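Chapter summary example.
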Amino acid sequence: MKVVNDKKWHGGYEFRPFAVRTTSRDFEFSRRSAMASERLVTSNMSVVWTPTLQETLIGGVLQGRKQFDPRGASKICRRQMWRAVVDLAALCGLAGLEVIAVKGSYGSLKERSDILKERRAIKSEATAEALGGWIRNCGDDGFQLEDIDSEARSS
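The structure predicted for these 155 residues follows.
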């Protein structure tokens, strides 16, 4: 990422590196703190906690929900966050974003929206210059908000 370090692009975009800092402190439930006699096992359970949100996820789905139930999506999953952005855009009077989001899939919004044109160009440049062997994660962003909303209403 050194190639794009301190680089600034049009539209307020810039590369801001972050530092990874380690600690020598052992936390109460860390693997190193476990007794030698304890058998440690992995789990597909996780917890999300903020002052305004508490969720228990099992395999990425809210506890008690079926895997493909739209109501089983975490508030921090991509489609729920996209829904929150669209709702906020509507509250701020940015109806254009809501129209784009509802008429197409999440993937088409990212690939075709004029709003994100500058972002796509910068990502392409950064990928070419700094992330030589990067393999894109694609194929799981074909969902549409109107489909999700109608599924949730009918459930």
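To summarize the output: The longest strand covers residues 45-50.
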